[in-house]
Amino acid sequence: MIELPEGSWWDWDIVAWTPGQLRLGAGHDISYAHGLELVFSDPVFVTCPAAFQDPVFRAPTPDEVRLIGRQIGETPRVLVAFEADAGGTSPASGLVAAGQLDIVRGTVFRYWRESLAVGERLAPWVKPLP
After folding, report:
1. How far apart are CA 45 and CA 48, in angstroms?
2. Rg of the Cα trace of the chain?
3. 130 part of a folded domain
4. Can you give the residue range of the structural domain that contains 21?
5. Over the stretch 114-129, which tens digit does the pLDDT of each residue have?
6. Strands (E), the chain
7. In angstroms, rounded to a whole number, what is the distance separating the alpha carbons of residues 37 and 9?
8. Which of 16, 13, 33, 8 is nearest to 25 (CA)?
9. pLDDT in tens, 64-100
């Protein structure tokens, strides 16, 4: 199970997903920026809504541990499970198996902005204005 730092981490989405990394961003309103990222390095199994709210992180169930073992042939170093509101009639389940998890704090702007302060950065898809 993971421990999040103090803060308002209600609103979540997938910030970036490449073969080597999955980044989930969180904040109280991620329309313009987010302040927390869960960075999963070397993800080997991911089931996760693209956007969700108010996740409850929990220990993986024995069935989830067995599922991952069958899928990847070993026990991963990191296995994170959660339930969240993804807009459906019942909670959506998330399960991520990866080689490493880093919890990163700092403001990540989702729009072009000059003169970033120390600890601030732009989301990977933000490009400079022409």
Report:
1. 10
2. 15
3. no
4. 11-122
5. 899 998 999 999 998 8
6. 11-18, 21-27, 33-41, 45-47, 51-58, 78-85, 92-98, 100-109, 121-122
7. 10
8. 13
9. 999 999 999 998 999 999 999 999 999 999 999 999 9
